Structures are given as structure tokens and as C-alpha cells.
Amino acid sequence: MTDPNTAGVATESVEAYVTAPGHLDSGPGKPRSLWSDAWHDLRRRPLFIIAGAVILLLVVIAIFPSWFTSVDPYHKDLDHFREKPSGDAWFGYDTQGRDVYARVIYGARWSLLVGVAASVLTVLIGAFIGILAGYFGRWIDGLFSRIAEVFFGLPFVLGAVVILNLVRSADIRGALPIVSAVVLSIAVLSWPVAMRIMRSAAISAKQQDYVKAARALGASSSRVIFKHLLPNCLAPVLVYGTIALGAFIGAEATLSFLGIGLRDPAVSWGVMISDSRNYVRVAPHMLLFPAGFLTATVLAFVMLGDAVREALDPKLR
Amino acid sequence: MGRYVLRRLLQLIPVFIGATFLIYVLVWAVPGDPFADMCGERPCSPQFIATMTDKYNLDDNVFVQYFKYMGALLTGDFGQTYAEQPVIDLITLAAPVSLRLAVVAVVIEAVIGITAGILTGLRGRGFLDNLVLVSTLFLIALPTFVTGFVLQIVLGFQLEILNPTVSSAATWGELIIPGFVLGSLSMAYVSRLTRTSISENKRADYMRTALAKGQPKRRIVGVHLLRNSAIPVITFLGTDIGNLMGGAIVTEGIFGIHGVGKLIFDAILSKQGAIVTGVVVMLVLVFLLVNLVIDLLYAVLDPRIRYD
After folding, report:
1. What is this structure's pTM?
2. Residue to substitute from A158, A189, A252, A313, interface B, most B β-carbons within 10 A
3. SS3 A64
4. Residue B216 main-chain phi, psi, to 5 deg
5. Are A198 and A232 in contact (CB under 8 A)?
6. Cα–Cα distances in Å, from B295 out to B4, B190, B284?
7. ipTM of this predicted complex?
């Protein structure tokens, strides 16, 4: 999004079926694009401001966890075995006497990493295939749509169970390989959604005059796709990506809870919740604090996605 | 109608083959030892490996293997555990419980979701609307296991209103709380869907006509509005039954319900891949079939859809 203005004008034309030049002439003074329009709209929404602030805070926590705690999250002290929250340790201690607060702070990194990577990958795969299928149509569309249906036919949790069960038996160690395995399996099972959104956007944008004009001028397929179609079809798939980001963080936690997601040394909130599974009764603080952070994070992303969608969709204004 | 059903059935076949082939390849044909995680904490006995290699024709090439496997599936053979117990036996024991749980969940989400959706959709912007919007947002953001654990701690351990775990009989009454947990996410979607659908149809021409004819408000809403708004909601609920049958892994794990989800959950924890894959394959089949039925139902419910 190096030049949101030009991209925005074009996007507006697709969403509202107004041609770009017509839109430019309509307003007095400086014309506002869809993106800057949306930005003006968003800045005044309390929902967006709250969600944005929470996400900003989480990103800072994920990048600089040491700003928020000076306790080592891996330090074990059995004297503090499952101790309740106190002034010394706000969130209490876990079964091995580790500080829950420090672990929650350091866990933000892994949860966010999985969410961001999975949604970027999903949107990249889905958007690429979707725009090809939508633009070329015919057998390419048929082929990709059938493949997407196959992946769509697999229920998410079940598909992830099979894939990650396999990964687990392959005995992978180290944080990065484990994270990539989880990210890949989420993306593999979710790309059809992004693909369908992109495909329908591309099909409706393909009928627009500016695309026909570009083709009449002899523009190559790749030029039409990247210069004309892509900026016009981006909005819906980006909104999906934002909401999916929250959903993927929740999905990672679910998979980790089942014992097939992340594991040591990549300790996300889901892993902490999974560890607390057998002690909910005696030490609920082990469960509630990571679960609270998890819920707040997912909520922030879903709220952000909701707000952005309402701002970008001219019909809802 | 007949041609439509036929076309849908034909379209299902490639999806069906693709999905099962995908799972089959993931389980048996990827490089590495497929038996590494099949038999719990111990390595598999050579006897089990020999039986399985023979049974799944693991020495053949992958396509031959797959077709032989599908042949076995169609006769109800979903593989066996390392204790030589057929997986299908475990499933027939667990399936009724899961089905009951799914029904409870769908009923709860339909009643609460549709009521909330109708109320907010009819009244439009206001306090109630905001309340429902915010609470659905929360329900969407809460992962199932958080809702489950919190309800279990509060209702089961602290207030001691109910038994925190469900007995093996799993009566309807015991399944209400787990059903609520399982259906909470879809409840949010149902109420949002109903709300949008109602507020869209509220301004339709037939509504104005009915009002101009002087029909009582109850009839306008109950007959004209609801019937037209119900179609997307009912389709969603139907698809959800398919989803919930397999999506109950977490809920059943938390509440200790002896259903299909618990079967998978326990098998994952005790590293018995043979059970995991057998059950998952069966659930994918159920999921595909339910979706097909819903698709057909959709065409029956909405006469505006052309079958051919």
C-alpha cells in the first residue's frame, strides 16, 4: 500500500460501481479516495480507537517483552508451586513455580506471530489463486474452484488434527519449525475462503470499463492483473484477513490446547492454557490470565475488522 | 428437481475423492515412518506393523493403496486400533452421544440466536441492538475452551449447581451446559444473520403491501417477514449440525462426554494415530453428506431457486 490514494480511487469505483473519473469530478476541492474516506470515518469510531490501542499495546509487548516484566519466564522455583496471585506475582505461579505474568507477557510473541504469519500466508495464497481464477475464468477457474472445494470439504479442526498429528510424529524440534508447521496447516485449510472472496471481486472488476480499456490498449495479462485488478479487489480480502487474524490466534490456542499445536520452547497462551488443563479446580489463575489475554486479543482484531469493513463498504454508510 | 439433485451428487464425487485422498496421503504416504505415533507411548509391535502393512497394502503404490482403502471404507471398515479393536465399534458407541450433544447445541443456538436477531432486527438501532452486537462480538472472540472452562469452574466447582463432568449416560439435562458452550459461537452468527436478514426484508415491497392491506402486525411479522427471513438462517443451522458433529472435540474433552470428539481427543493425547485417522475420515464423510443434504434442502425451502 505505497500509494493508498490511487488504489483507493479505483477501489471506490469497484465497490460502488462508479467509474474513477466520475468520482474524481464529483467532489468540490481535493477528491477523497475510498481509503482516506474510510480513514476519516474510522478515526471517529470509538470501537476502532479501542481496538487499535489494544493491538498497538500487544505488538509492543510482543516485540519488547522485557519492558513489561523483569522476571525470567523460564525460571522455576518449586517453593512457589501453584501459588495464588499476590503483590509479588500479579498472576500467581504455575505448577513448576514459574511466574504466570512473565509467561503471559512472553507468550504474546508466539500467539501474535502465528496469527500474523497465518493470515498473511492465507491471504497471499488465496488472493493469488483467486485473482487468477477470476480473471482467466474458463478451465483455470474450474480447476482452482474444484481444488478449493476439496480443501473446503475438510472441517478445520479435523484437518488440522490429521496434519499436525503427522507433524508431531515426525519429531520436529526447535521453535521456528514448530511455528511454521502450525502456520502452514492453518493456511492450507483456510485459503479457499480468501480465494472465493478474491475471485468474486475479480470477476465483478473484470467487467469494468477501465479493465476493458486497458486490454484494448494492449496491456498484457500480468499488467492488467497487477496494475488494475489487484488494487481494486484488495479491500474485501484485507478485511477478511484482519478478522481471520483474530480467528487464527484463537485457532492456534485451540490446537495447542489439544496438544498438537505449539509446544516448548514456543510457549503461547494456548500452550499455557493446555498446561493448566488438569489443575483448573485448584489453580484457576493458571487458566484465567492467559485466557483473558487471548480473548482480549481476538476481540481486538475482530472489532478492528468489523470497523474497517463498515468504513470501507459504502452501502453501510 | 431430479436433475438438480443428480448434478449436485455428481459434483460431490470429485470433492469426496479429493478430500479422502488428501487425508489418506497425509496419513499413510508421506515420507517417514507412519507407525511412529500410532500405538501410544510404546513403539508399535512388529506384528501390528505387519498386519497393517498387509491390510493397507502399504507395499503397493499410493493410488492402488487408496482405491483398496476406499473399497474397505465403503464396506464400513475404518481400520483398527493396535489392540485390534475395529474403529467402527468405537464410533458406533460414541456417535449417539455426539449426535445428542449436537442437537442440544443447535436447539439452544437457534432459540436464543433467532430470538435476539428478531428483537434487534425489528427495533433497529437502540440499546438492545448495541447490547446484542457487543455480546455477539464477545461470543465470537471467546474460544470454545475458555467458555467451557469458565462455565465449568463457576457453575460446577464454585456454585456447585451441577456436576462439572457429564456421566457416561449423558442424559439430555446434563448436556445443556456443554451444548450451550458448543453452540455459543454459532449463536452469535445466528443472531447476526437473523438481524441482517430481518432488517433487509423489513423494507421489502411485500411488507408494505401487507401493511397497506391492513393486516394485523402479528401476521405481517409472523407469516410474511419471518418466513422470508428464515431461509439463510435455517441453512446455516443445518450446516452447523455437520460442523458440530466433528467440532465437539474441545467441548467433549473439557466435560468428559464420551462422544466422538472425546474419542479423538483421548486418542491424540495417548498418541494413537490409528484411531484419530479412522474417526476423522468418518467425520469428513458425515460432514460432506450433511452439506449435500442441506444444499438440497435449501432448494426445497426457497422456491425462487431454479433447480436446472
Report:
1. 0.79
2. A158
3. coil
4. -65, 150
5. no
6. 10, 18, 17
7. 0.75
